[in-house]
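Q: I'm writing up a methods section and want to include an example of the input and output format. Could you take the sequence below and give the corresponding predicted structure tokens, formatted cleanly so I can copy it straight into the document?
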Amino acid sequence: MFDLTFTIDGQDTTVPLTLPIDHAVIAGWTGRDPVARDKHIAELEAIGIARPASTPIYYRVSARRLTTEDSIEVCGSESSGEVEFVLIGWQGRIFVGVGSDHTDRKVETYSVTVSKQMCDKPIASVLWEYEDVAPHWDQMILRSHAWIDGARVLYQEGTLDAMLPVEELIHRGFGGKGFPDGYAMFGGTFAAIGGIRPASRFEFELEDPVLKRSLRHAYDVIVLPVLG
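A: Here is the clean output for your methods example:
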């Protein structure tokens, strides 16, 4: 069991809560629009990454890869982040967060599963109750900025109506049994504006335009040398 402490933002109040996370899942190719989904698949194929065995697909990674720290260390310069919403199950409740599925792109060319395990997965330290945002889920916005060659650029942006609904994502991933306690699941991402590329710093957010609030996090990418 791995514990992470968050702040639960309930609009009127905020409370700290330590959540036990036993399992982490990275859901991939979760787009509702097959054209947009295939665009992201083609984007990855362009850098040598094979098509997935199914869509969506659910990769397992160590829960200890999750972190709320503001920096991560990676081997070599061929990794990059992806903004995604995150679901966490606890005592029958579902919390919503935002994270980055930071992935080693070189390793991804020969094994997506292994590549997902190579890098830490930063997530914001504030969560929302899913029931508070479910009525306007499709209107929420995922967005990321990347620092590339000293400049901050818009890297990804899109609304959640482009992703599979939460209920369908859970149903497909867990056999219709509901979202289990102790699981954290990343929900998929958008194609990168200008193509996938590494960055020295990655900033990401989930914006709720209805309740006028956002979940945000950012982290520096520290590159370790690959000597052989």
